[in-house]
Protein backbone atom coordinates (compact mmCIF):
# COMPACT_ATOMS: atom_id res chain seq x y z
CA UNK A 1 0.00 0.00 0.00
CA UNK A 2 1.38 3.40 -0.91
CA UNK A 3 0.62 6.66 0.82
CA UNK A 4 0.33 10.23 -0.41
CA UNK A 5 3.15 12.55 0.63
CA UNK A 6 2.45 15.90 2.31
CA UNK A 7 3.60 17.60 -0.88
CA UNK A 8 1.10 15.67 -2.98
CA UNK A 9 -1.59 16.30 -0.40
CA UNK A 10 -0.94 20.01 -0.77
CA UNK A 11 -1.90 19.66 -4.45
CA UNK A 12 -5.40 18.87 -3.29
CA UNK A 13 -5.74 22.36 -1.82
CA UNK A 14 -3.93 24.08 -4.67
CA UNK A 15 -6.17 22.54 -7.30
CA UNK A 16 -9.40 22.45 -5.33
CA UNK A 17 -12.25 23.88 -7.36
CA UNK A 18 -15.42 24.48 -5.32
CA UNK A 19 -17.48 24.33 -8.53
CA UNK A 20 -16.26 20.84 -9.38
CA UNK A 21 -18.72 18.30 -7.89
CA UNK A 22 -16.03 15.59 -7.69
CA UNK A 23 -13.75 17.90 -5.75
CA UNK A 24 -16.56 18.73 -3.34
CA UNK A 25 -17.40 15.06 -2.93
CA UNK A 26 -13.74 14.23 -2.24
CA UNK A 27 -13.61 16.99 0.39
CA UNK A 28 -16.63 15.54 2.18
CA UNK A 29 -15.10 12.06 2.06
CA UNK A 30 -11.91 13.46 3.54
CA UNK A 31 -13.81 15.27 6.29
CA UNK A 32 -15.47 11.94 7.12
CA UNK A 33 -12.18 10.24 7.95
CA UNK A 34 -10.50 13.10 9.81
CA UNK A 35 -10.33 12.38 13.58
CA UNK A 36 -12.78 14.32 15.75
CA UNK A 37 -9.92 16.03 17.58
CA UNK A 38 -8.77 17.62 14.34
CA UNK A 39 -12.28 18.86 13.58
CA UNK A 40 -12.54 20.96 16.76
CA UNK A 41 -12.56 24.70 16.41
CA UNK A 42 -9.61 24.80 18.81
CA UNK A 43 -7.48 22.40 16.75
CA UNK A 44 -3.97 23.66 16.07
CA UNK A 45 -4.32 23.56 12.28
CA UNK A 46 -7.53 25.63 12.45
CA UNK A 47 -5.73 28.28 14.50
CA UNK A 48 -2.79 28.27 12.10
CA UNK A 49 -5.12 28.47 9.12
CA UNK A 50 -6.93 31.46 10.58
CA UNK A 51 -3.82 33.35 11.62
CA UNK A 52 -3.13 36.44 9.56
CA UNK A 53 -0.81 35.78 6.66
CA UNK A 54 2.86 36.06 7.41
CA UNK A 55 4.48 39.07 5.80
CA UNK A 56 5.50 38.25 2.24
CA UNK A 57 9.18 37.46 1.97
CA UNK A 58 11.43 40.35 1.06
CA UNK A 59 15.20 40.61 0.71
CA UNK A 60 15.19 41.96 4.27
CA UNK A 61 13.10 39.19 5.85
CA UNK A 62 14.72 36.16 4.19
CA UNK A 63 16.99 34.26 6.59
CA UNK A 64 20.00 34.31 4.29
CA UNK A 65 22.21 32.48 6.78
CA UNK A 66 20.03 29.32 6.67
CA UNK A 67 20.29 26.96 3.70
CA UNK A 68 16.77 25.70 4.31
CA UNK A 69 15.21 29.16 4.63
CA UNK A 70 12.86 30.21 1.87
CA UNK A 71 13.42 33.01 -0.61
CA UNK A 72 9.88 32.40 -1.91
CA UNK A 73 7.14 29.85 -1.37
CA UNK A 74 9.04 27.11 -3.22
CA UNK A 75 12.71 28.05 -3.38
CA UNK A 76 15.42 28.06 -0.74
CA UNK A 77 18.60 29.93 0.09
CA UNK A 78 20.52 26.70 -0.51
CA UNK A 79 19.23 26.49 -4.08
CA UNK A 80 20.15 30.11 -4.79
CA UNK A 81 23.79 29.58 -3.76
CA UNK A 82 24.00 25.85 -4.51
CA UNK A 83 24.94 25.39 -0.84
CA UNK A 84 28.21 27.22 -1.55
CA UNK A 85 29.23 29.62 1.22
CA UNK A 86 31.75 31.29 -1.08
CA UNK A 87 28.86 32.51 -3.24
CA UNK A 88 26.65 33.40 -0.31
CA UNK A 89 29.31 35.62 1.25
CA UNK A 90 29.56 37.65 -1.96
CA UNK A 91 25.89 38.51 -2.49
CA UNK A 92 24.89 42.19 -2.22
CA UNK A 93 21.66 43.76 -0.97
CA UNK A 94 20.70 44.61 -4.54
CA UNK A 95 21.41 41.01 -5.63
CA UNK A 96 19.14 39.77 -2.84
CA UNK A 97 16.27 41.93 -4.06
CA UNK A 98 16.60 40.50 -7.55
CA UNK A 99 16.83 36.96 -6.22
CA UNK A 100 13.60 37.34 -4.24
CA UNK A 101 11.81 38.88 -7.23
CA UNK A 102 12.96 36.14 -9.59
CA UNK A 103 12.00 33.47 -7.03
CA UNK A 104 8.45 34.83 -6.90
CA UNK A 105 8.26 34.54 -10.69
CA UNK A 106 9.65 31.00 -10.60
CA UNK A 107 6.97 30.13 -8.03
CA UNK A 108 4.39 30.70 -10.76
CA UNK A 109 6.14 28.12 -12.97
CA UNK A 110 6.45 25.78 -9.99
CA UNK A 111 2.68 25.89 -9.52
CA UNK A 112 2.09 25.10 -13.17
CA UNK A 113 4.77 22.47 -13.84
CA UNK A 114 5.46 20.95 -10.44
CA UNK A 115 8.83 20.84 -8.66
CA UNK A 116 11.75 22.54 -10.40
CA UNK A 117 15.37 21.59 -9.85
CA UNK A 118 17.93 24.40 -9.79
CA UNK A 119 21.41 23.79 -11.22
CA UNK A 120 22.71 27.38 -10.86
CA UNK A 121 21.37 30.73 -9.66
CA UNK A 122 23.51 33.44 -8.06
CA UNK A 123 27.20 33.37 -9.05
CA UNK A 124 29.96 35.67 -7.83
CA UNK A 125 32.52 36.65 -10.53
CA UNK A 126 35.05 33.99 -9.48
CA UNK A 127 32.50 31.18 -9.57
CA UNK A 128 31.03 32.55 -12.80
CA UNK A 129 34.42 32.48 -14.52
CA UNK A 130 35.12 29.00 -13.18
CA UNK A 131 31.92 27.55 -14.67
CA UNK A 132 32.47 29.37 -17.96
CA UNK A 133 29.69 31.97 -17.57
CA UNK A 134 29.82 35.07 -19.79
CA UNK A 135 31.20 38.27 -18.21
CA UNK A 136 27.85 40.07 -18.20
CA UNK A 137 25.88 37.01 -17.06
CA UNK A 138 22.60 37.73 -15.26
CA UNK A 139 23.71 35.09 -12.76
CA UNK A 140 26.13 37.71 -11.37
CA UNK A 141 23.20 39.80 -10.18
CA UNK A 142 20.99 36.94 -9.01
CA UNK A 143 18.65 37.73 -11.90
CA UNK A 144 19.08 34.36 -13.64
CA UNK A 145 18.38 30.78 -12.66
CA UNK A 146 19.03 27.52 -14.52
CA UNK A 147 16.10 25.23 -13.84
CA UNK A 148 14.52 21.98 -15.00
CA UNK A 149 11.20 20.32 -14.22
CA UNK A 150 11.34 17.14 -12.13
CA UNK A 151 7.91 15.85 -13.10
CA UNK A 152 7.27 17.39 -16.51
CA UNK A 153 8.75 16.92 -19.96
CA UNK A 154 11.82 19.23 -20.03
CA UNK A 155 11.58 20.06 -23.74
CA UNK A 156 7.90 20.96 -23.47
CA UNK A 157 8.72 23.07 -20.42
CA UNK A 158 11.43 24.87 -22.37
CA UNK A 159 9.10 25.46 -25.31
CA UNK A 160 6.49 26.89 -22.96
CA UNK A 161 9.12 29.25 -21.49
CA UNK A 162 10.14 30.36 -24.98
CA UNK A 163 6.61 31.51 -25.63
CA UNK A 164 5.63 32.79 -22.22
CA UNK A 165 8.58 33.75 -20.03
CA UNK A 166 8.84 37.53 -19.90
CA UNK A 167 12.63 37.71 -19.92
CA UNK A 168 15.62 35.91 -21.34
CA UNK A 169 15.37 32.20 -22.14
CA UNK A 170 18.49 30.15 -22.85
CA UNK A 171 17.50 26.91 -24.53
CA UNK A 172 19.73 24.44 -22.75
CA UNK A 173 17.48 21.41 -23.14
CA UNK A 174 17.35 21.74 -26.92
CA UNK A 175 21.16 21.88 -26.86
CA UNK A 176 21.33 18.65 -24.87
CA UNK A 177 21.91 20.22 -21.46
CA UNK A 178 19.92 19.54 -18.33
CA UNK A 179 18.39 22.96 -17.77
CA UNK A 180 16.62 26.01 -19.14
CA UNK A 181 18.23 29.39 -18.35
CA UNK A 182 15.63 31.97 -17.26
CA UNK A 183 16.51 35.57 -16.45
CA UNK A 184 14.93 38.90 -15.62
CA UNK A 185 16.42 40.70 -18.64
CA UNK A 186 14.66 41.70 -21.87
CA UNK A 187 12.48 39.09 -23.53
CA UNK A 188 14.57 36.99 -25.86
CA UNK A 189 15.53 33.43 -26.74
CA UNK A 190 18.95 31.99 -27.53
CA UNK A 191 20.60 28.62 -27.82
CA UNK A 192 23.47 27.37 -25.76
ZN1 LIG B 1 22.07 30.40 -16.85
TrEMBL record:
Q: Which Pfam families match?
A: Peptidase_M15_3 (PF08291)
Put simply, this protein is called Peptidase M15A C-terminal domain-containing protein
Q: Where is the Peptidase M15A C-terminal domain?
A: 87-183
Gene3D superfamilies on file: 3.30.1380.10
Q: Which domain of life is it from?
A: Bacteria
